[in-house]
Design a protein that fits this description.
Strand content: under 5%
Radius of gyration: 20 Å
Distance between the termini: 70 Å
Number of strands: 0
């Protein structure tokens, strides 16, 4: 009994340490703690306890760009929460934000299941529709599927006056345009996205918006303004702690500099 109690304490404190490391953006450290917790967690532990550990491990792996392993963790966490009847936590897992296309598309089956348990017309549905649209944009050549999800999300955002959700839809539309030759982002939409990103403290979305805005300005011949926007995107990407997004913005900035000499 003492051995079991000691093991449970180790798992508990490892989980706390992992969550603390995630909050500090120390993803390698967080993953070590969650792996240790999973290794010593008794088989008799509740589904939700294991789900929380797999979710933490998945978040760390997302940040470390271990997409395949991250999807395995997140799928296990989602299924465990659903099995325990904790739909709220399951939806939270489904809303995990990936940068890379493999991860975005890999989350589609989870998102589709989560959409079955949220209240229609709720902001939860709106956020899931955004992630569904962005995921489908990476691999589905039929843009109608992506655009239908994103337009639904935008309608919900406006109905609830949710500016953060509205900002998220912008990235979705920009990805459909970038990867599937969808409808062009209008100047009015771009200016609206820039305004929202200035008002909302979300460095991930700010980096995305300013990256798109910088490219747009550069292609229209406004080199100095384009560079300034891309530099703003780089600062936001670094602040987000998202290594993949930082690399993406840095690559775009280098390409723009090379293009203009």
């Amino acid at each position: 009994a003492e051995a079991v109690a000691g093991t449970e304490n180790l798992a508990h404190y490892s989980q706390i340490a992992g969550e603390s490391a995630l909050a500090k953006l120390a993803y390698d450290e967080a993953l070590r703690h969650f792996e240790r917790a999973l290794a010593v967690t008794p088989i008799s532990s509740s589904e939700e306890r294991v789900a929380a550990l797999r979710f933490g491990s998945g978040l760390a792996r997302v940040a470390l760009r271990e997409h395949e392993s991250a999807l395995g963790d997140l799928t296990a966490a989602f299924d465990a929460y659903m099995g325990a009847g904790n739909h709220e936590r399951a939806v939270h897992v489904a809303r995990t934000r990936f940068v890379g296309g493999e991860g975005r598309y890999g989350m589609v089956p989870i998102i589709q299941k989560a959409l079955e348990v949220v209240e229609p017309g709720s902001t939860d549905e709106g956020w899931l529709q955004v992630y569904l649209g962005r995921g489908l944009a990476m691999a589905d050549p039929d843009t109608d599927h992506s655009l239908t999800a994103l337009r639904r999300a935008l309608d919900i955002a406006r109905e609830h006056n949710d500016e953060h959700l509205e900002l998220l839809t912008f990235e979705g539309f920009s990805f459909v345009n970038m990867f599937q030759n969808g409808p062009e982002i209008t100047n009015e939409q771009m200016q609206r996205a820039v305004m929202l990103s200035d008002r909302i403290d979300d460095p991930v979305e700010r980096a995305t918006v300013y990256r798109s805005h910088g490219v747009e300005l550069w292609t229209r011949g406004h080199g100095d303004l384009g560079r300034a926007a891309l530099e703003e995107a780089k600062v936001a990407a670094v602040r987000s702690g998202d290594r993949e997004r930082s690399s993406s913005v840095h690559w775009v900035l280098m390409q723009a500099c090379l293009w203009n000499g």
